[in-house]
Amino acid sequence: MATTFKRTLVRQYPQSGEKITTDTLYWKNLEVPVTKKEYGAITHIDFCPVEPHYFAVTNSTRVQVYSPISLQILKSISRFKEVTYSGSFRNDGKLLVAGGDEGIIRLFDVSGKTLLRVFKGHQRPVHVTKFLMDRLHLFSGADDNSVRVWDIPTEKEVVVYEENKDYVRSGIASCASQDIILTGSYDHTVKLFDTRISESVMTVDHGHPVESVLMFPSGGIFLSAGGNVVKVWDALSGGKLLTTLCHHHKTVTCLTFCSNYQRFMSGGLDRHVKIYDVSSYQVVHTLDYPGAVISLGSAPDDSLVVVGTAEGLLSIQKRKPDGEPVKMKKKPVSFRYALKGKTYIPNKGDHVVEHKRREHLAKYDKYFKRFEHSKALDAALSPINRRTKPEIPMSVLQELIRRSGIRAALAGYSETQQTIIIKFIQRNISNPNYLPVLLDVANLVLDLYSDQLGQSSMVDKAVQELKEAVDMEVKYMKTLYEMIGMMDTLFSASAHTDQSLLNGQASPVNLTPSAAAQNT
């Protein structure tokens, strides 16, 4: 009895690139973004801390309040004559404050869009307006280089700070204290203020114009963004720099927390939003957008991610409901195997005769079944397989080697076929999973057709490109071996130093004559 034909096993190799982690799956569980075009650049996005977590979008001469359910505008506050900035909710969600190019701060009742208070005192545009935790005060930062704290009931200034030497463009109030505020300025400094004191209590140098600041709820650690870096500072240690994050290649413009303060996000002019783990400060996921990101916000429960761009595009992404079934595209079936019209369900005692479906073989397997090895290789090296499925030609080459038919399959190739196999080797020889097999195949091809070199410009060009690719791989390998050698030396020296310290032996120190004389 003849045995059934064994199909060619197509081996799947792990793809290099993004690692699939729980964070990757979590942040990929977002729906297709809803994009809205606004009149001007979207300068600020702020989520209401209380449910249902409305969000305010500041752009042009208005502040628009969106519904997180319908993603439609609920209220549009347009009591501004010039460009407005920093529309922010109070922590109870009842009031909203915003500044603008007029140098005036306006306070609104969110429910009725009623203008409640007007604060005047700044001489230049006001870019920062935030409420303090006591709900009775707010602070502002402006292009007149000043930071001012205001009493809401009386509309009067409580304290004015004029320490900055350039624009104040970012700020945040501490969640741990009703008296602590943090500001960032274009003079490269981040300043911590206590509203009970008439001057700053801490100043750190970010090294770039500061575009955004963020403070953890405990108030012990804060972040600053400017240039292409995000810096993490320890406030309890007097402003000690903990780490510098350099994952953007253009200016970082905005920061915000997400995932219940377990993650934070940064957006930049490079059109990327990076998501970091607060425990390790490592990037766990990246979101891409069609424009330069200058504002972003995330709902407290991560149900929404909203991003604003300099081009006036507002991107809103909802999180998919948990447990939502994945819709799979149904494969077309032959009428012989479909169950249309067949409603009878066999009983327990029925004898069921199942029809065995005919096995469909791939084209190269059909040639293998007829022992036509050369045609099998040609079928595997089809254009689509060479471009998108290199694992199929690789599996066929391995099967030919196993059958000892690789030489016969490659013999008698035309110029076009020689060029195809050589270019396939050149394109995939840098893949370490394919390297051993492709080296053997390349040697065999050169052995078979070396006497024909110089007779076809097409084949000669392909061989030259293969040589350049191999030379480049050899160069990379030499560089890597040199780096491994240097790292081994460093690790060995470090281990020797640690062992000496454990044994209580001091490392030898070379002293100059003057230093030795001073020691004696």
From TrEMBL:
Keywords: Nucleus, Repeat, rRNA processing, WD repeat. GO terms for cellular component: nucleolus. It comes from the Eukaryota. The keyword Cell cycle does not apply. WD repeats lie at residues 119-160, 245-286. Residues 344-490 form the U3 small nucleolar RNA-associated protein 15 C-terminal domain. GO terms for biological process: positive regulation of transcription by RNA polymerase I; rRNA processing. Its main location: nucleus. It is found in: Nucleus, Nucleolus. Pfam families: UTP15_C, WD40. Ribosome biogenesis factor. Involved in nucleolar processing of pre-18S ribosomal RNA. Required for optimal pre-ribosomal RNA transcription by RNA polymerase I. Part of the small subunit (SSU) processome, first precursor of the small eukaryotic ribosomal subunit. During the assembly of the SSU processome in the nucleolus, many ribosome biogenesis factors, an RNA chaperone and ribosomal proteins associate with the nascent pre-rRNA and work in concert to generate RNA folding, modifications, rearrangements and cleavage as well as targeted degradation of pre-ribosomal RNA by the RNA exosome. PANTHER family: U3 SMALL NUCLEOLAR RNA-ASSOCIATED PROTEIN 15 HOMOLOG, UTP15 U3 SMALL NUCLEOLAR RNA-ASSOCIATED PROTEIN 15 FAMILY MEMBER. This is U3 small nucleolar RNA-associated protein 15 homolog. It comes from Potamilus streckersoni.
